[in-house]
Amino acid sequence: MEKIVVVTGANSGIGLALCDRLLSEDGRLRLCLACRNMKRAEAARTALLACHGDARVDLLHLDVGSARSVLSAAEELKARYRRMDFLYLNAGIMPNPTVDIRAFFKGLFSRNVVNMFATAEGLLTQQDQLNSDGLQEVFATNLFGHFLLIRELEPLLCQPGHTSRLVWTSSSNARRSAFSIQDIQHRRGKEPYSSSKYASDMLSMALNKHKNQQGLFSSVICPGLVMTNLTYGILPSFFWTLIMPIMWLVGCSALYLFTSNFNLKPRLTTSPSRHTDPDFHQHFHAYAVQRSRGTGLYPAGVFRVHTSLRPGLRRGVNTNSCSGLSQHWLFLQKPESLDPRAKYQSLTSGLGTNYTEPRRVSNVCPRQILL
Ligand SMILES: NC(=O)C1=CN([C@@H]2O[C@H](COP(=O)(O)OP(=O)(O)OC[C@H]3O[C@@H](n4cnc5c(N)ncnc54)[C@H](OP(=O)(O)O)[C@@H]3O)[C@@H](O)[C@H]2O)C=CC1
Ligand SMILES: CC(C)CCC[C@@H](C)[C@H]1CC[C@H]2C3=C(CC[C@]12C)[C@@]1(C)CCC(=O)C[C@@H]1CC3
């Protein structure tokens, strides 16, 4: 039976890489790219079809940051499909990020250095704003929109005798201390991204508690640090190139030998693109770097860069880092074998092997959320 898979935020970065990986895995897949920008979605579809000629790739307009758009997208999905096997809740934003340079240098010489690089704790703040629904944009996009979508899609996701899966793209930046039940949308704080990712971890657990018996299973993944439009929004690409040696040093530090929660998989583009369409370039170069060579997904003139810095002593060319996506790993697992309270992390071993490992979600979850 063909699997029906929907990916939100599929037109770039991790979402697009996931789509490519899933199509390589299962040729009979019916994949739906749910994106807010149809021009970019169309370009992503064209790129995917150039690699997977006979794939079935549908497009759907979905702005997860708008309740209205979510409701109409859910109606459209219910009209198109009779069930849904996988729903990847991947779309996410980190608006106006600021790096605290002083905290960075202070952290660099502290015992917390590995944790700082792995989780960005104390380093990053964002400036949020209200969206047209009157909600904080970060929570609306990273959490509420996806939750509304799940609720609206229950007829497709909770079918008797069939299991369906939800997979949230969370983050190592998710932190309980950034979340407050008194300020659910993080209106008053400066770390809405961290807070929203923690809330999605909690929501996933709550969904497992309430929906497993109806055949719906939810998992949370953490992709590590991946060079995408989101990370290029934090620092420009040349800056990333500059700080790579620091990251490499941290990765090689002795601490890494004793802590296994450090995972940096930066991929960066160093060469300029000769492609003429800036939109195309912006949304494809981050993905193109992850492809091995000369496939149809390379826009002409975009040079692949393949610097893969791994903690654990190896610096080398990583031709298809996406094979380490934990979203893809989860696709291959039976839901009953998964831990409903775990966060599945993409990790790279000292020898350069990509693997996925479950970790307990940060701290114990607040009872209020799970009830
Ligand atoms: N890169 C990293 O190191 C990490 C990323 N993540 C998470 O991974 C996910 C993917 O991000 P990443 O690939 O890095 O970054 P990208 O910016 O490349 O991808 C984000 C995707 O989400 C889409 N999106 C944003 N807002 C909306 C919206 N309102 N409605 C629909 N789609 C939307 C974007 O579409 P558009 O092109 O229109 O903006 C884009 O396709 C995010 O949830 C992010 O938080 C987690 C940990 C680390
Ligand atoms: C010289 C300095 C300005 C260098 C600062 C380095 C930081 C920019 C990065 C160190 C750890 C990174 C990190 C992320 C962003 C960039 C760092 C803060 C994420 C928050 C990106 C998105 C995620 O979901 C998790 C990442 C954790 C690590």
Automatic annotation (TrEMBL):
GO terms for molecular function: 3-beta-hydroxysteroid 3-dehydrogenase (NADP+) activity; 5-alpha-androstane-3-beta,17-beta-diol dehydrogenase (NADP+) activity; estradiol 17-beta-dehydrogenase [NAD(P)+] activity. Pathway: Steroid biosynthesis; estrogen biosynthesis; Steroid biosynthesis; zymosterol biosynthesis; zymosterol from lanosterol: step 5/6. It comes from the Eukaryota. One of its GO terms (biological process) is estrogen biosynthetic process. Its EC number is 1.1.1.210, 1.1.1.270, 1.1.1.62. It is an enzyme of class 1 (oxidoreductase). The chain crosses the membrane at residues 215-232, 238-258. It is found in: Endoplasmic reticulum membrane. It catalyses: 3-dehydro-4alpha-methylzymosterol + NADPH + H(+) = 4alpha-methylzymosterol + NADP(+); 4alpha-methyl-5alpha-cholest-8-en-3-one + NADPH + H(+) = 4alpha-methyl-5alpha-cholest-8-en-3beta-ol + NADP(+); 17beta-estradiol + NADP(+) = estrone + NADPH + H(+); 5alpha-cholest-8-en-3-one + NADPH + H(+) = 5alpha-cholest-8-en-3beta-ol + NADP(+). One of its GO terms (cellular component) is endoplasmic reticulum membrane. It holds the Pfam family adh_short. Belongs to the short-chain dehydrogenases/reductases (SDR) family. ERG27 subfamily. Binds to the short form of prolactin receptor. This is 3-keto-steroid reductase/17-beta-hydroxysteroid dehydrogenase 7. The gene is HSD17B7.
